[in-house]
Design goal:
alpha/beta; 13 strands; 14 helices; 7-stranded parallel β-sheet; binds uridine-5'-diphosphate-glucose; Rossmann fold; 8862_t:CDS:1; single chain
Length: 420
């Protein structure tokens, strides 16, 4: 087992796409991009909240053409969903959330309302169950849908692929059919960098070929993208923005909302967090023999609040009737697993033990985003660097060591009363 200050010898093999020279290019590029990222945080402040009411009507009508219009957020109680709902509320949108709460809880939304100082609407509904979906479309004037609801664990998807195809693909098609029935043709879809498979060129841009995708979860994202593309081609009433996220992490700078994984986390950052808390003994690094700076896999980590602002920018894009467009949301900066552990260690001031084990099946070596299309066409830029992502993540886990508590009955009642 290594501790973070241990120098790890890089083991390389010859059968990988990325040479040492390429890694050096990535390193240099990272430095340039890091220097250009605006590191000011988007922490909400009193002024912004107080000004909200003056701006809200204007912002809402900009996108929805209706002051009564709602943005429907599927899976809005989850990690990225809840941060996006907060950003929507802060930007003046009316929001109705549906969630089946299978991997989330109401507490995130209770806290979102407190942070935003604005109410949202919530319905316990499932994208697979039209009996729960239709009443929501009947009740609200829905102008656009942000579609997050999905199963999302790559490893789990290789074990129970049918559940993934059923929930993600069938659920999405069900949702799209109901949207069509109610004349709602605007959608922002929560896609993933995983649709690129292992790209030939790094950073990857939206013109790069898609697939082959190495796991069922990723395939569901690709299939849904394809379905949306076909829908937009067949009927020009449809407008869709496909957002391909790279590796989301961090938490709202307040430390009040964040990621709340159930069971042993699959993803790196939540796993590292539980090691920091002493809930898990060490980080298992999957593979030390990739041809990268230190032999461990490289990813493009992006702050969840930057993803949230990306969704608001995507909603505005829908107003221009773009047809079907895809955007990468990443910083363009890649970090190895060891660099992530070191950054987290800096944020929490603790040593983080780790052990290098064999590669995880289905993993790729390196991926980073070319997000210049989103910069140009959405006017979207990430604001947070890696240290801020880790600091915000640490603030969230330090103040909520066991994640969200079960809300009290009274607070649940109040929430439901406010919501429906
Ligand atoms: O316990 C762990 C977990 C992960 N890793 C490594 O950490 C990196 C990141 O892994 P992870 O956090 O699981 O993310 P990815 O596999 O890159 O996939 C994420 O990022 C994709 C977008 O690129 C999203 O589509 C997926 O939902 C999301 O899980 C990879 O090199 C993994 O091998 C470890 O070494 N140990």
């Amino acid at each position: 087992m290594h501790l973070i200050e241990t120098t790890v010898t890089t083991v390389t093999t010859n059968n990988h796409i990325f040479s040492k020279q390429h890694c050096q290019v990535l390193q240099n590029k990272r430095q340039t991009i890091e220097n250009s990222i605006n590191i000011s945080t988007c922490e909400p402040n009193e002024t912004r909240m107080e000004n909200l009411d003056n701006n809200s009507v204007k912002k809402l009508s900009e996108v929805t053409n209706s002051q009564d219009g709602y943005v429907l957020v599927t899976g809005g109680a989850g990690y990225i969903g809840s941060h996006t709902v907060l950003e929507l509320l802060l930007n003046g949108y009316n929001v109705v959330v549906i969630d089946n709460l299978s991997n989330s809880c109401e507490e995130s939304l209770i806290r979102v309302q407190k942070l935003a100082r604005r109410p949202l609407k919530f319905h316990h509904a499932d994208i697979l169950d039209e009996k729960t979906l239709i009443p929501v479309f009947e009740k609200y004037n829905i102008c656009a849908v942000l579609h997050f609801a999905a199963l999302k664990a790559v490893g789990e998807s290789t074990k129970i692929p049918l559940n993934y195809y059923w929930n993600n693909v069938t659920g999405s098609l069900n949702l799209f059919k109901i949207m069509e029935r109610f004349g709602v043709y605007n959608i922002v879809f929560s896609s993933s960098a995983t649709v690129y498979g292992q790209p030939d060129t790094i950073p990857v841009n939206e013109k790069c070929s898609l697939g082959p995708v190495t796991n069922p979860y990723g395939k569901t994202k690709l299939f849904i993208e394809e379905a949306i593309r076909d829908m937009c081609t067949a009927n020009d009433k449809w407008n869709a923005v496909l957002l391909r996220y790279f590796n989301p992490t961090g938490a709202h700078p307040s430390g009040v909302i964040g990621e709340n994984p159930r069971g042993i986390p699959n993803n790196l950052m939540p796993y590292v967090s539980q090691v920091v808390q002493g809930r898990l003994p060490f980080v298992n690094i999957f593979g030390g023999d990739y041809e990268t700076v230190d032999g461990t896999g490289i990813r493009d980590y992006i702050h969840v609040c930057d993803l949230a602002t990306g969704h608001v920018a995507a909603l505005r894009k829908l107003k221009t009737k773009p047809g079907c467009v895809a955007y990468n949301l990443g910083t363009g900066v890649g970090y190895s697993v060891i660099e992530i552990i070191q950054a987290m260690s800096r944020a929490c001031g603790k040593k983080i033990p780790y052990k290098i084990s064999k590669r995880r099946p289905g993993d790729i070596s390196v991926i980073t985003a070319d997000a210049s299309l989103a910069n140009i066409e959405l006017g979207w830029y990430p604001k947070y660097n890696l240290d801020q992502m880790c600091q915000d993540l640490w603030r969230w886990i330090d103040s909520n060591p066991l994640g969200y508590p079960e809300p009290s009955n009274e607070s649940k009642q109040n929430f439901l009363k406010m919501s429906s």
